[in-house]
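Hi, here's the filled form for the chain we discussed.

Project: internal
Contact: R.S.
Residues: 111
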Amino acid sequence: MAGRNTLEFTQDNFQSEVIGSSQPVLVDFWAEWCPPCKALGPTIDEIADAYSGRVKVGKVNTDTNQSLAAEYGIQNIPTIMIFKNGEIRERLVGLKTRRELEAALDSALRA
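And the returned structure, exactly as it came back:
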């Protein structure tokens, strides 16, 4: 389901890949059974390609990483979080456009 630059984040690698990242990280909390999540998938992959080398982009399957979803208070999916220096910079809930996601990423890159 992931594009060539879209990573898979799990409980095992979240600390090193997201919290410890020197780059901003876009995290898509999603599930296989969620139609809006599936609709957002291609947009996430496009952003991963467009921002390759500047931003990490990845997905967390909330069904297989329930403790991670609970830790971040994920109640509705899709939820997009943008992390920078290990901290949540932005939280977007629901189906968002590429433009909305890029605006949030550009803001994190400038900050």
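Let me know if anything looks off before we file it.
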